[in-house]
Design goal:
Blueprint lengths: L2 E7 L3 E8 L4 E8 L11 E3 H19 L6 E8 L5 E3 L9 E3 L7 H7 L5 H8 L9 H11 L1 H6 L2 E3 L1 H10 L6 H4 L5 E2 L4 E2 L1 H4 L18 E4 L2 H7 L6 E7 H8 L8 E5 L3 E7 L11 E4 L6 E7 L3 H11 L7 H8 L10 E3 L17 E3 L7 H26 L5 E5 L6 H11 L2 E5 L5 H13 L15 E5 L3 H26 L7
Parallel strand pairs: 1-5, 5-12, 13-19, 19-20
Antiparallel strand pairs: 1-2, 2-3, 4-7, 6-8, 9-10, 11-12, 13-14, 14-16, 15-16, 17-18, 20-21
Length: 503
Amino acid sequence: MKLVIGADLGTSGCKAAAYDTSGREICSTVRFYPTQYPRDGLHEQALADWWTAFSEAIQALVGQLGHRSQQITGIALSGQSLAMIPLNHDGDALLDNVPIWSDTRAQSQCDDYFTRVEQATWYQRTGNGFPPALYTLFKVMWLRDHQPDVYQKASTVVGSKDWINLRLTGKIRTDPSYASGFGAFDLLGGAYANDLLAPAGVPEELLPRIVPSTDVVGVVLPDVARALGLPRSVAVVAGGVDNSCMALGALNTKPGSIYASLGSSSWLTLCDTKPVLDETLRPFVFAHVVPGLYNSAISTFSAGTSATWAIDTFFPSMDGNIDALVDLALSANVGSSGVIFVPSISGGTVFEGGPVVRGSLTQLSAVHGPQDVARAIIEAIPMALRRPLDRLREITHVHDSMMVTGGGARNAAWLQIYSDILGARLVKTNVDQQAATLGAAALALVGTGLWDSFAPLESSHTVEEQFNPAPDKSRIYTEEVLPRFTFAANQSLEFSKFRPNAG
């Protein structure tokens, strides 16, 4: 009985799980790390924290498995996107703390780049629908402009999971899904685009070689294997970006299928044989880890973060307990008796107004109580997703049913509200928060030859709950609440433009 490990290097920590060849989870663990905010727009994490979290997670799995740890034959990682890690010729990192996906330091580099490249053309080629400053290409330009001594020493720039793979194997590689978030990857061509790199002054030689997500990059180095407690010759498979690994783990591999990831930021991801691109909606697109497929996603950046902020601000006695917030909210009327919360606490997507947009709580009166505020908060996040979902439904085929994953999928009452607002059946399975690790493990199983396809993934899922939209509540949300929410969101954006030091 062979085993593989799937690990997810996320925004808040590293999850890892061991799976057998049936796709069944044997054991799992998680280790957390902080994000540092040295200045406005700078969001950094320490490479040492990544390696410590990953190492401790693997060691914990080895300890849980006992003698069965000798059956581990492969490892694959899912990694947070858009990170920038410059390496010297020896493969050593040139920075201790690196910008992560949400870092917006490179806005001036974006502005400069788009004087030479039409932004609409860039988006249509790359599918990079996040606010452009988030993409790695512009962070590399920032490094060149602000830390030229570091840039001149750089031989390669890699992302999150590829840096861990380098530490494991000594080999530098990436895969199409991670490369497609660089900022100069031609989605349909499946390769870096020199005509998009040249205006940035970034040579292709600085970027890692692209291999399929299921390729074996190398084996775990002997000294690393000893330190982690792994057997000799464990294969390290290329892996993929978190969005695409999660899509695989959530069985999002058929055209029109869609899944919801409900976490600190929340998104809905559609699978198709072509990128779904729209100038108004600006879906952000990644190549799938499954060849020939693409993941086109819509998002709200401030999901769980807004809920946590709201609890801490308005209901500190709840001590951050989301379930307590939902329980209070259930005592209020559908639609929060007119109260509207716009959850853009951490800025927004391009569709929401970009990094400059901020949140708001509006339409309060003396008749409203804490239950109305609580309900407005938990209705706001699915409402923020409903707006782009409606546009997505206009431009392409979207299945009526979606699988849900992530921390926001733990509360059944909240999931019912999601279903009512989104107008979709939600399906929760036993995989729950482990979709990314399961997707990474599937890549390891295929990459090591233990599976000859991804078909066995189906048996990894057991449906635990389903939530169908209640027609009467869906009608209220669609006809009454959505127009008010849309108006409030637009007003929040207009007010944000007048905020001192906006953005």
